[in-house]
Design a protein that fits this description.
Layout: H1 3-7, H2 9-22, H3 29-42, E1 46-50, H4 53-63, E2 71-75, H5 81-88, E3 92-96, H6 107-113, E4 118-122, E5 141-143, E6 157-161, E7 175-179, H7 182-191, H8 213-222, H9 226-247, E8 252-253, E9 266-270, H10 273-282, H11 312-320, E10 321-324, H12 334-349
Parallel strand pairs: 2-3, 2-4, 5-6
Antiparallel strand pairs: 1-7, 6-7, 8-9, 9-10
Helix pairs in contact: 2-8, 3-8, 4-5, 4-7, 9-12
The structure holds pyridoxal-5'-phosphate (PLP).
Length: 358
């Protein structure tokens, strides 16, 4: 069972039973109540519950008029959905370079990638690190799938995912869009039910992007714990940063701290990343690689014309990143143990100090 689910299991069981007893499984009062609580927690005027983080992106881009002939600027170092949503609408994705320290979309590169065809820029608060938004008149949609509890809304909308491993996870797929723009919220609400208003009278072509009542009820039960879980993630991340500072390992580049960091993942850049991963696995320390291939070189985007070395920083980073264990129920001593194992690996293998070259 997910550790966070275990902490609130009784409340989640009661929420699910309430939905089963009500017989209302799609939309209804549970969705409304969750949307209100989410808007309040995120300090925005509108939260629209949808079926996933992917559909949150899709519905928001649809509402902004993204379609054939338009361009969407984003990062190639993110989960696939960020770029997939724009492509599915017939738009051309323009990948801009990332900042090598934050690993987020470089705001200057993003601004200069905008043209008169650009309908949206999508910075991603990757791993929970708040992305600096580019200075541009183009609407900014923040992909906040990994940063709930972190940065405040700065663009026209932020899209959330409640995939079970996210900082607040559903018991299936779920997502939401946050915005202070009432017309945009209304448009996304319309799009999530096939553009129908009233029922069976279709003003626009939308989709089935609805949030299930069970997911809404479960999320409503978990949401009050977000602040405490984020505080715990921050404490554990600081333990990693302190342990790394004490160990002084030049082969590791650390994620920068930020007061609004949601610390969805603790990701470092490591020399001989694959060797280090094997060493940690042998010590029974689980790690993950987010993400092993940059989006601009994926087969499905071959027609965009990117080549190896089109985005050199992004291409280097995908070979260096490794996510270390971090979740609210992680025992406090673990960061020190993990850093101890990493120090032991580099002592044994004598990898040269980082030079900045691949
Ligand atoms: C950055 C990012 N964007 C979008 C998504 C898509 O969310 P979902 O899996 O809920 O569709 C995810 C998560 O999976 C994500 O991490």
């Amino acid at each position: 069972m997910h550790a966070e689910l275990a902490l609130v299991r009784a409340d989640v069981d009661a929420a699910i039973a309430r939905v089963l007893d009500s017989g209302v499984f799609i939309g209804g009062p549970e969705v409304k109540s969750f949307e209100q609580a989410l808007a309040q927690a995120a300090n925005v005027s509108h939260a629209v519950g949808v079926s996933s983080g992917t559909d949150a992106l899709l519905a928001t881009l649809m509402a902004l008029g993204v379609g054939p002939g338009s361009e969407v600027v984003t990062t190639a170092f993110t989960f696939f959905a960020t770029a997939g949503a724009a492509t599915r609408l017939g738009a051309r994705v323009v990948f801009a370079e990332i900042d090598e320290t934050t690993l987020n979309l470089d705001p200057r590169a993003a601004a200069s990638a905008c043209s008169d065809r650009t309908r949206a820029v999508i910075p991603v608060h990757l791993f929970g690190h708040p992305a600096t938004l580019p200075a541009t008149s183009v609407p900014i949609v923040e992909d906040a799938a990994q940063s709930l509890g972190g940065p405040a809304l700065g663009g026209i909308a932020a899209t959330l995912s409640f995939f079970p491993t996210k900082n607040v996870g559903a018991v299936g797929d779920a997502g939401a869009v946050l915005t202070n723009d009432a017309a945009l919220a209304e448009r996304i609400t319309l799009l999530r039910t096939h553009g129908a208003q009233p029922k069976y009278h279709h003003l626009v072509v939308g989709g089935n992007f609805r949030l299930d009542a069970i997911q809404a009820a479960v999320l409503r039960a978990k949401l009050p714990h977000l602040a405490a879980w984020t505080a715990r993630r921050r404490l554990l991340a600081q333990r990693y940063l302190d342990a790394f500072a004490a160990a002084g390992i030049p082969e590791i580049r650390l994620p920068p701290a930020h007061p609004q960091h949601a610390w969805h993942q603790f990701v470092v850049c490591a020399q001989d990343r694959n060797g280090l991963r094997q060493h940690l696995a042998a010590a029974e320390i689980g790690t993950e690689i987010y993400y092993p291939e940059p989006l601009h070189l994926q087969p499905c985007f071959a027609d965009l014309g990117y080549r190896p070395r089109s985005l050199p920083v992004t291409e280097r980073v995908v070979r260096e990143v490794i996510a270390l264990p971090l979740h609210p129920s992680l025992p406090e001593g673990i960061p020190e143990q993990v850093v101890g194992q990493i120090a032991a690996f580099y002592r044994k293998n004598g990898v040269r100090p980082a030079t900045g070259n691949p």
